[in-house]
Amino acid sequence: MAKLPLGRNVRGRNDETAAENRRRFAEARLCAVNLLSSPGSGKTSLLERTAERMKDRWRILVIDGDVETERDAQRLRAAGLEAIQIQTHGACHLNAMMIAEQVATVDPAAFDLLLIENIGNLVCPSNYDLGESSRVVVASTTEGDDKPIKYPEAYHTADLCVLNKVDLLPYLPFDVAAFEAGVRRVKADMPVLHTSCTTGAGLEAWCAWLDGQVRATRGEPGKS
Ligand SMILES: Nc1nc2c(ncn2[C@@H]2O[C@H](COP(=O)(O)OP(=O)(O)O)[C@@H](O)[C@H]2O)c(=O)[nH]1
Ligand SMILES: [Mg+2]
């Protein structure tokens, strides 16, 4: 019996829905940013800090993916953001259909920025286009400096790399130059920002980058 090309069909449906999501986001002038990382690198913390700095400037919606629990959405609501939790009950990535289903429950034009926290995993999420405007890979100093070369797809498909937990650098055998060389080996022109959600270091640069993304989506000039 011939094998069904299931993988291709599933990906094909995902890509069609991602294109439809992208069209809806563009129509609503909604900037969608997909955050990828391993578990615990600080995605939710970064969004909490982002809320403090940006929630009065832009109307922000979060779609948060986790295997189980509503914990991250609760954290982000407590930080003052509107947040939808997707629980995948085992699936290791978000797909475009899950995003479409949740976006259908809101008015996308009522928001300027959609922040999507993907499932903590550096493998599967990189293969699924969600229709996002840009993709961010969040690394952290506690993961070791070799992750870009070990998980190249996550880095190759990202538009920005955030290296978080830089406050811990004095205590860890993490070689920043080796990490950045690994990032550039995978993607030569990748910008890398250093952040600490604990001390606040680098968060201004991160918010300026996000601000630029929102402005670009809205067709507004960036701040000089
Ligand atoms: N020292 C330090 N800890 C951090 C930083 N960012 C996040 N954390 C901690 O790392 C853990 C995981 O953070 P979380 O935001 O839940 O990561 P997520 O799984 O990627 O969403 C929590 O205990 C955070 O307090 C940081 O910049 N520095
Ligand atoms: Mg989280």
Order of helices and strands: HEHEHEHEEHHEHEH
Give a quick account of the main beta sheet: strands, pairing sense, barrel closure: 7 strands, parallel
Strands ordered across the widest β-sheet? 3-2-4-1-5-6-7
Number of strands: 7
The share of residues in helices is: 25-40%
Number of domains: 1
From the N-terminal CA to the C-terminal CA, the straight-line distance is: 63 Å
Task: Classify the beta-strand content into a percent band.
Answer: 15-25%
CATH class: Alpha Beta
- The CATH architecture can be named as 3-Layer(aba) Sandwich
CATH superfamily: P-loop containing nucleotide triphosphate hydrolases
Query: Globular, elongated, flat, extended or rod-shaped: what is the shape?
Result: globular
Bound molecules: guanosine-5'-diphosphate, magnesium ion
Name the average pLDDT: 95
By oligomeric state, this entry counts as single chain
Give the radius of gyration.
Answer: 17 Å
Structural class: alpha/beta
Total helix count? 8
Unreliable stretches covering 5 or more consecutive residues: none
CATH topology term: Rossmann fold
